[in-house]
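User: Once you have settled down, look closely at the record that follows, taking as long as you need, and be ready to discuss the fold:
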Amino acid sequence: MHPLQAMSDGFSQERQTQRAESQLTLGKLTTLLKLLNPDRFIIGLGFPMSYRGYYGDLAFNETLTMELITDLLTRIQNDCMGKVFEGYKGGEYVMGENTPIWTATYGCLGKKIIGLDSSQEPIKPILKEDD
């Protein structure tokens, strides 16, 4: 690998680690979901994709479709963890436990997911604008 590419990759990883401190990651989301009744419904987390803002992060397409918690957990495990996603303008990115997560429409910037509101049915992601 070219030294400049290695330096750029290191900087990107450092920035991703910083983002992970202020928002949910795939691992944190999985942990929160496992604490909930698996037969409850969640809304707002559609198909997964590389996030337009930071290709190494994961975004769930905004949706109004409800899904069982148990089904979302299965989808995260089967379709996200350890899987390679193509960035919006190319490149390949592996998603894992420490990958920050967002909600967005394909090709657009979105909002970071900072938690889950489980006080109502269906459960909804708690969103925040990027800093």
Summary: The longest helix spans residues 3-20.
